[in-house]
Specification:
The chain is an alpha+beta fold and 624 residues long. Helices cover 35% and strands 18% of the residues. The protein has two domains: 277 residues, 3-Layer(aba) Sandwich (D-Maltodextrin-Binding Protein, domain 2); 226 residues, Dipeptide-binding Protein, domain 3, CATH 3.10.105.10. It has a seven-stranded mixed beta sheet. A six-stranded mixed beta sheet has the order 16-22-13-21-19-20. A four-stranded antiparallel beta sheet has the order 4-5-7-6. Helix 19 packs antiparallel against helix 20.
C-alpha cells in the first residue's frame, strides 16, 4: 500500500483527544448561550427595578407636594390620593397627568430640536436671543405659571398668593420641599437673591433691570415660608413681573463675582423639569443637552432628554429634519410652503400653522445717532419715506408666502393694545420722493444715487443675521425697492455673535430683526428714551417725550380700559415717527416627527414639551 495512502488515512482518524476538544467547544457554546440569556433576564430585571424606582420617586414627590399644601392627611394604614380633588383647578401638572392616561403613554426617548441659528450665551440675564430662552424655560422655574390652554395663572414654586387692595404688595406662599437640580433646597432666600442680583448695577442685565425697576424691594417672612414683592407705585404688570421671575439658586450664582458672571456664557442651573448635566461647562458651538431632572419637585415629564442642535442656515436645518436627524423645527415660511407639499415628509410628520397672540414682529430699525452724531435717519421724513418705498403686502406674499399679517406698530394685531384705527403707511413712491426732497435730498450723482444736504450719497448698510434665507430674500427685495428711488442699500450679513455685538454697541446704520410680544406688551425697553443706555434696547437712539409720557402713564394705570387708551396713543405716535419700519407679524409654523403624541395647539402656541410622549415601540433616541 503506497505510503501516501497511509499518511492520508492517519490524518483523517478521529481520536479520543479530538472527541474531548469537540465536546468542550459544544459545552462552551451552551454556557455562553445560557449566560447571554441570564444577562437578558438581569437587564430586564434592572429595567423593571429602575422603572419601579422612578414610579416610587414620582409618588413620593406627589405626596410631598400634597402635604406641603395641607391637601391630604395620612392616617395609619391608608394610602394617599395623588391629588386632592379640591386642588385640581390649581394643579399646574393637570395636562401632564391627562397625558399619562392616554393610550400608549410611555416614558423615554429624546426630543431633538433644530435651532435655525447659533446660541451665543445660555447664562440667564446675559443671553438675548429667543433660542437661549427656549432652553432656559425648561431649567428655571417661576413662582407662578400661566396655563396655555386657559390663560389662567396656576401655582408653581408658590402654592398661593395675595395682593393688597392698593396693588403695592404681592405675597407668595412658598412651596416646601423644592430642590434645585443639585439637591440644594429652594427657599424664599433664593427669590430675594434673584431680585437683588438683577438690580445690582454691576451685573450686565439692563434689560431685566428695567423690567424690575418698579419693585422697591423683595422681602421674606420671619419663618421664611412667604416672600413679598413691594412696589413703589401701581404697575399694570406687577403680578406678571413677580410671578414670572425665573428663580436662580443663590448658592450657585452667588459664588461668582459680577465680572466673572458677566463674562460667562454657560452658567445654567435651576429647579425645573430638566437640567444641564454640567451647569458650568457649556461653550458656544457645543451641543446643548438637557437631561430630565430626577430631583424635580413636580410630575416628571416623559422625555428623558431635550437636545438642541444648532444650524448656521435654513437649508441645513431642513435637510436635517428631512433626514430624520432632528425631530422638531420651526421653519421659515418658504420652507413650510415647500415641506407641506412633500407627501413622504407629510406622511411621517405633523405640521402646524396658526395665529399666535405672542408671535413677534419683523422690523427694520433706523439708527438715529452713530458715534455721537445724528445720522440721516434722525429726520422723521426720511424714516417715513423709507417705509413708503416698500410694498409690504408684496413682501408678505413673496417672502412669507402669505403666512403673516401686516402690522403698523409693536403690538399684536389681535391685541387690545393695537389701535384698529391706525393704518400702516401706504406704499407710495411719489409721496416718499417728495418727503426726501423736503428733507434736502434734491440731487443725484453720476451713478444715480441721491445726494443729501451735505452732498454725501444716500448709501447705507443694512445689517442682518447671516444664513437665513428669509432675511436674505427680504434684503434683495428692499435693495431693489430703494434703488428705484436712488438709494443704495449694501447688505451686511453677520453671524449671530457678531450681529448681537453690533446691536449692543449701536455700531450699525440700519438693522433688521424681530421682537417677541406678549398678550399685553410693555414697550418701555424698546422705545422709552431712558433705554438708550449702553446695552439697552433703544439701540436706535430714538426719543419722543410725548411717547415717553404715554408709556410711563400706561405702565402705572391699573384700570385696563384707561390703559388701553394710552397704549393706543403710543401706537399712533410710533406709526407716525417710524423709528422702526414695522413689517409683519408672522404665523407660528412648526414641523414635528409624528412619533410624538399629545402635541397640541393652545392659545399660546404649541403646548409644553413636558406634555409630549412617544409610545415605547417608537422610541428612537436612547443613550445605552
Amino acid at each position: 500500500m503506497p505510503p501516501v495512502f497511509e499518511k492520508t488515512r492517519m490524518e483523517n482518524r478521529f481520536g479520543l483527544k479530538d472527541f474531548f476538544l469537540f465536546s468542550f467547544l459544544i459545552l462552551l457554546g451552551i454556557v455562553i448561550l445560557l449566560t447571554m440569556k441570564q444577562y437578558d433576564r438581569q437587564w430586564e430585571t434592572i429595567q423593571s427595578i429602575s422603572t419601579k424606582i422612578d414610579d416610587q420617586q414620582r409618588a413620593i414627590l406627589t405626596i410631598q407636594d400634597a402635604l406641603s399644601k395641607g391637601a391630604i392627611a395620612l392616617p395609619s394604614g391608608t394610602h394617599p390620593a395623588t391629588t386632592a380633588a379640591s386642588d385640581l383647578k390649581n394643579d399646574p401638572f393637570q395636562h401632564l397627568r391627562d397625558a399619562e392616561k392616554m393610550p400608549g403613554y410611555a416614558r423615554g426617548d429624546w426630543l431633538v430640536y433644530g435651532f435655525g441659528n447659533q446660541v451665543a450665551k445660555l447664562t440667564p440675564l446675559l443671553s438675548t436671543d429667543l433660542y437661549a430662552q427656549r432652553v432656559q424655560e425648561h431649567v428655571l422655574d417661576s413662582l407662578v405659571t400661566r396655563d396655555k390652554y386657559t390663560l389662567e395663572w396656576k401655582p408653581q414654586l408658590a402654592t398661593a398668593w395675595t395682593i393688597s387692595p392698593d396693588g403695592l404688595r404681592i405675597t407668595f406662599k412658598m412651596r416646601q420641599g423644592v430642590k434645585f437640580s443639585d439637591g440644594e433646597p429652594l427657599t424664599a432666600d433664593d427669590v430675594v437673591f434673584t431680585y437683588k442680583f438683577i438690580m445690582n448695577e454691576k451685573i450686565a442685565c439692563p434689560r431685566d433691570r428695567s423690567y424690575l425697576e418698579r419693585v422697591k424691594d423683595v422681602v421674606k417672612s420671619e419663618n421664611g415660608d412667604e416672600v413679598t414683592f413691594i412696589y413703589g407705585e401701581p404697575y399694570f404688570e406687577s403680578f406678571l413681573l413677580a410671578a414670572g421671575l425665573g428663580i436662580m439658586p443663590r448658592h450657585f450664582y452667588g459664588k461668582f463675582k459680577p465680572e466673572e458672571f458677566n463674562q460667562s456664557v454657560g452658567l445654567l442651573m435651576g429647579s425645573g423639569a430638566y437640567r444641564m448635566e454640567n451647569p458650568e461647562d457649556w461653550k458656544p458651538g457645543k451641543l446643548i443637552q438637557l437631561v430630565r431632572n430626577e430631583r424635580y419637585w413636580g410630575v416628571l415629564p416623559a422625555l428623558e432628554r431635550l437636545v438642541f442642535k444648532e444650524f448656521s442656515n435654513e437649508i441645513a436645518l431642513q435637510t436635517a429634519f428631512s433626514n430624520g436627524d432632528i425631530d422638531l423645527m420651526e421653519p421659515q415660511a418658504s420652507q413650510y410652503y415647500d415641506m407641506i407639499r412633500q407627501p413622504p415628509l407629510v406622511e411621517r410628520s405633523q405640521h402646524f400653522d396658526f395665529v399666535n397672540p405672542e408671535e413677534g414682529y419683523r422690523y427694520v430699525a433706523w439708527n438715529e445717532k452713530k458715534n455721537g452724531k445724528p445720522t440721516r435717519f434722525a429726520d422723521k421724513r426720511v424714516r417715513q419715506a423709507m417705509t413708503m418705498l416698500v410694498n409690504r403686502d408684496r413682501l408678505i406674499q413673496e417672502i412669507m408666502l402669505g403666512y403673516a399679517v401686516a402690522t403698523s406698530g409693536p403690538f399684536s394685531p389681535v391685541s387690545k393694545q393695537s389701535d384698529p384705527t391706525v393704518k400702516a403707511l401706504p406704499f407710495d413712491i411719489g409721496r416718499a420722493k417728495k418727503l426726501l426732497v423736503d428733507a434736502g435730498f434734491t440731487k443725484m450723482n453720476d451713478e444715480g444715487i441721491l445726494l443729501g444736504p451735505d452732498g454725501t450719497p444716500f448709501e447705507f448698510k443694512l445689517t442682518y443675521p447671516s444664513g437665513v434665507g428669509n432675511y436674505e430674500k427680504m434684503i434683495i427685495a428692499l435693495k431693489d425697492s430703494y434703488a428705484k428711488a436712488g438709494i443704495k442699500l449694501d447688505p451686511d450679513p453677520l453671524e449671530w455673535a457678531s450681529f448681537t455685538d453690533r446691536l449692543n454697541n449701536k455700531n450699525f446704520e440700519a438693522i433688521t430683526l424681530g421682537w417677541g410680544v406678549k398678550i399685553e406688551s410693555d414697550i418701555y425697553q424698546e422705545f422709552h428714551s431712558s433705554q438708550m443706555v449702553e446695552g439697552g434696547d433703544d439701540f436706535m437712539s430714538y426719543k419722543n417725550e410725548e411717547l415717553d409720557k404715554a408709556i410711563d402713564e400706561a405702565r402705572r394705570t391699573v384700570d385696563e380700559d384707561k390703559r388701553m387708551v394710552l397704549w393706543h396713543k403710543a401706537h399712533q405716535i410710533l406709526a407716525e415717527d417710524q423709528p422702526y419700519m414695522f413689517l409683519w407679524t408672522r404665523k407660528g409654523m412648526w414641523f414635528a416627527d409624528k412619533r410624538f403624541q399629545n402635541v397640541k395647539v393652545t392659545k399660546l402656541g404649541l403646548n409644553d414639551y413636558e406634555e409630549w410622549f412617544v409610545p415605547k415601540a417608537q422610541h428612537k433616541w436612547t443613550k445605552k
